Amino acid sequence: MKENEKIIDRWIESATYWEKHRDTIDAMFAPVTQALIQDGAAGQVAGKTILDVATGQGEPALTLARLAGPTGSIFGVDPVPAMVEAARREATRRQLTNVQFQVAFADSLPFPANTCDVVLSRFGVMFFPSPLEGIREMLRVLKPGGGIAAAVWGFADRNPFHYIFSRVMDRYVPSPPPEPGALDAFRFAVPGELLNVFQMAGAVETSERLVQFQIQTSLSPEDFWTMRCDISEKFRSKLAGLTADQAAEVQQEVLTATRTHSANDLISFPAEIHVVSGRKL
Ligand SMILES: C[S@@+](CC[C@H](N)C(=O)[O-])C[C@H]1O[C@@H](n2cnc3c(N)ncnc32)[C@H](O)[C@@H]1O
Description:
Blueprint: H1 3-20, H2 22-41, E1 49-53, H3 61-68, E2 73-78, H4 81-93, E3 99-103, E4 116-122, H5 131-141, E5 142-153, H6 160-172, H7 193-201, E6 204-217, H8 221-231, H9 233-240, H10 244-259, E7 262-263, E8 266-279
Parallel strand pairs: 1-2, 1-4, 2-3, 4-5
Antiparallel strand pairs: 5-8, 6-8, 7-8
The structure holds S-adenosylmethionine (SAM).
């Protein structure tokens, strides 16, 4: 299977689940969108032309469309047609007329050079086969002086949203650490690595910010378990390989750990991400 087909294959099943859990995902990662807007667009999006690369089910593009107003133009791209269809459905449901979604890979964006004021990506760059080519292409479509920003996960062991599942699951289905450069959620957890890619791609005035926030959702621990298994292709496939008894044990252990982060119907996890930003010369 070719690299691009593998990417689509990996994400296609997730599209249904990311759409199903859209409201929860929106709430959990709203602080990430705010950090991207702050660092990539100096907090100013009204009337801007903004591209969201690896938009998935449409975030942050849909949030940007609401904030940018009628004179703004928002574009979102993702290589997985089912993700793009989900994003379009939501734009229609919200009656947003200033946002468009297209199927595209990050390293081949269907836009002329020098057309966007801002280019952003939330939790996408770590999955690009060549992050350098992806960031170069994002810079190509950016106007001179325009802002670029990407959000990626910090270390797994600083993010209980991930590790309360992975630590339990790894005891049942051991997984070797990913090879360097593997398309993994924590590929850019080491500070400076994505910053270096931005600089190699030609971005100027680059910076990296560690953003600490709370991932919050008003789900019960049981509903959180369902949502978390649904949206992670890794957990779904590992769970599918367990016996019913093992799966029940994993669920109980994860629920117990989740309850330590849950009070008054609110689940709240401390989280750490890096937001890397820069400008086009
Ligand atoms: C973790 S999801 C993030 C979705 C959304 N941006 C959000 O934060 O909710 C990662 C997305 O990256 C997309 N993706 C994977 N490889 C890509 C590539 N080479 N170019 C562009 N997007 C890619 C996937 O299809 C998926 O929708």
